[in-house]
Each structure stands twice: as structure tokens, then as C-alpha cells.
TrEMBL record:
<dbReference type="Pfam" id="PF13847">
    <property type="entry name" value="Methyltransf_31"/>
</dbReference>
<dbReference type="InterPro" id="IPR004556">
    <property type="entry name" value="HemK-like"/>
</dbReference>
<keyword id="KW-0489">Methyltransferase</keyword>
<dbReference type="InterPro" id="IPR040758">
    <property type="entry name" value="PrmC_N"/>
</dbReference>
<keyword id="KW-0949">S-adenosyl-L-methionine</keyword>
<dbReference type="InterPro" id="IPR002052">
    <property type="entry name" value="DNA_methylase_N6_adenine_CS"/>
</dbReference>
<dbReference type="InterPro" id="IPR019874">
    <property type="entry name" value="RF_methyltr_PrmC"/>
</dbReference>
<feature type="domain" description="Methyltransferase">
    <location>
        <begin position="109"/>
        <end position="180"/>
    </location>
</feature>
<protein>
    <submittedName>
        <fullName>Peptide chain release factor N(5)-glutamine methyltransferase</fullName>
        <ecNumber>2.1.1.297</ecNumber>
    </submittedName>
</protein>
<dbReference type="Pfam" id="PF17827">
    <property type="entry name" value="PrmC_N"/>
</dbReference>
<dbReference type="InterPro" id="IPR050320">
    <property type="entry name" value="N5-glutamine_MTase"/>
</dbReference>
<dbReference type="InterPro" id="IPR025714">
    <property type="entry name" value="Methyltranfer_dom"/>
</dbReference>
<dbReference type="InterPro" id="IPR029063">
    <property type="entry name" value="SAM-dependent_MTases_sf"/>
</dbReference>
<dbReference type="GO" id="GO:0032259">
    <property type="term" value="P:methylation"/>
</dbReference>
<keyword id="KW-0808">Transferase</keyword>
<feature type="domain" description="Release factor glutamine methyltransferase N-terminal">
    <location>
        <begin position="2"/>
        <end position="68"/>
    </location>
</feature>
<dbReference type="GO" id="GO:0102559">
    <property type="term" value="F:peptide chain release factor N(5)-glutamine methyltransferase activity"/>
</dbReference>
Length: 274
């Protein structure tokens, strides 16, 4: 079964097909790689659950959607096709937040714009136990999924999720505003990997003609959303840093830091009020 699955996945362009086959076997039967290696001749009465997952993966469906979950920071999050899959690169924003606010008592309010799975807001609340937060998304089903993740991680009493266009309904200030908005230029979307372009929500990817449409909406709002000592931390795409710095300057914001991810790619910008 593993050999057939490995061959099938390789033919369909899946990287590390043997490893993925073992992960899919575990997903189908609950038996991890160690068990599989110890019991290579174990008879399997019903191969269909396994090969069903193999076919879906071969078509490009992301492993996180097959599992229905994805780890992010210290959390385990339920993910559906209503939510962008949380990625390790986005943890750069959490690293920046903790670097600039190491005292866990200094953050009492957090706003997450474009919350998706709720990963950033919930990670921040997990790190800052005195904080409460609001997550906003444009899609109701996505906001509901984020609220479910709050319950699954026992953070529901400190997190509220709303459906809105960015910060439009808010008249409050926050110690931290955090966001991973869509930033893929429209012309680049066709070149994305199949498991991204065909499965993840397009609204969470499409950043307009130059990838910066969301930032033009968000940045002008930040001076009125931040407390006097507040920070905004936003993720952005490759090569967009200089344009974001200029948009921030026009919006009356000060660039505190540009942050690189573990691959050395500049991934996030930290902003404050001037």
C-alpha cells in the first residue's frame, strides 16, 4: 500500500512522496511511522480510507485540510477551506511582538485584522494572559471558525470575532494591532502552487494589482487604532518592504523594525504612531 501510494504521489508531483504516504496512512488508520515500520506485513482489511486520502493529496489538496488541523505557535487550530492555512513564516509576527513587548503585563488589548483561523490573535492572547482581543474578518464562516478555535484553545472568554471590512466599525484603541492581509499581486496568483491556488480562499490571497490594496485600507486607520505606545505588526510579501515603508510614512506612522523570517526573507513590519 505504501509503495503504491508513494508511486502515485510522485507521479502527481508531490514532494517527499514516501513521507507523505506514511502521514496519510497515519491519518487513515491512526498508526504512526514507527508502527508502520515495525509492522510492514500487517494486513489491512479496508484500504479505501487510505487510498481516498492519497487521491485527494495527489490532486493537490493540502495536508492541513485533510487533517483538519494545523499547529501554530503554541496552539493547535482547526482549519477548513474557509481559512488560510497558518504558516511558520507568520510566526515572525509573534516573535516581533514578544521582542518589543517582553513584559507580559504591558499588553491588555489586541486587534487582529483579517483574522482567518484566528491564529495571530489567539497566539497573542496565549502569550499575554491579561489581554483581550478582537478578530475581524470579511467572511462570516471564517469568523465563526476563528471563534471555534478560540473555544478549542480555551481562549473564548478573552476573544471576540466580528464580520466587517477591516476596522470600519471600531471606535477603540489597542495596544497591539496585528495583521496578515492578502498580499499576492493578482498577476502572480496563477503561478502559485496548486495546493494554494486551487484550495485556499482566494480572498485571503488576492492583494490587488500590486499586492498592496489591503495596506492602503489598513495603514491610514492605524493612528486612530493604536494607543499612544501601541504597536502595529503586519506581514507582507517578498519585495514589498520599501513600498510599505512609504505608505506608512504617508499615513503618519513610524517604522520601528523590518523583521526577517527563518529563511532570511523580510516578512513583517513593526509600526508605531509618530
Amino acid at each position: 500500500m505504501l509503495a503504491d501510494a508513494t508511486e502515485y504521489l510522485a507521479e502527481h508531483g508531490i514532494d517527499q512522496p514516501r513521507k507523505e504516504a506514511r502521514l496519510l496512512f497515519e491519518l487513515a488508520y491512526g498508526q504512526d511511522t514507527a508502527w508502520q515500520m515495525i509492522h510492514p506485513d500487517e494486513p489491512i482489511s479496508d484500504p479505501m480510507p487510505f487510498f481516498g486520502f492519497v487521491q485527494r493529496r495527489g490532486k493537490g489538496e493540502p495536508m492541513a485540510y485533510l487533517r483538519g488541523s494545523k499547529g501554530f505557535w503554541s496552539l493547535d487550530l482547526e482549519v477548513t477551506r474557509d481559512t488560510l492555512i497558518p504558516r511558520g513564516d507568520t510566526e515572525t509576527l509573534m516573535e516581533a511582538l514578544i521582542r518589543h513587548r517582553p513584559d507580559r503585563s504591558t499588553v491588555s488589548s489586541v486587534l487582529d485584522l483579517g483574522t482567518g483561523s484566528g491564529c495571530l490573535l489567539l497566539a497573542a492572547l496565549a502569550e499575554y494572559p491579561a489581554a483581550r482581543g478582537i478578530g475581524i474578518d470579511r467572511v462570516e464562516s471564517t469568523a465563526r471558525q476563528a471563534a471555534k478555535n478560540a473555544r478549542l484553545n480555551h481562549l473564548e472568554e478573552r476573544a471576540l470575532f466580528c464580520v466587517a471590512q477591516w476596522a470600519a466599525p471600531l471606535a477603540a484603541r489597542f495596544d497591539v494591532v496585528i495583521s496578515n492581509p492578502p498580499y499576492i499581486p493578482q498577476a502572480d496568483i496563477g503561478g502559485l502552487m496548486k495546493d494554494v491556488a486551487d484550495y485556499e480562499p482566494m480572498m485571503a490571497l488576492d492583494g490587488g494589482a500590486d499586492g498592496l490594496a489591503a495596506y492602503r485600507d489598513i495603514l491610514p486607520c492605524l493612528p486612530n487604532l493604536l494607543t499612544p505606545d501601541g504597536l502595529a505588526i503586519l506581514e507582507f510579501g517578498i519585495g514589498q518592504g520599501d513600498d510599505l515603508k512609504e505608505l506608512a510614512r504617508v499615513a503618519g506612522l513610524q517604522v520601528v523594525e523590518l523583521c526577517a523570517d527563518l529563511g532570511g526573507i523580510t516578512r513583517a513590519i513593526v509600526l508605531s504612531r509618530e
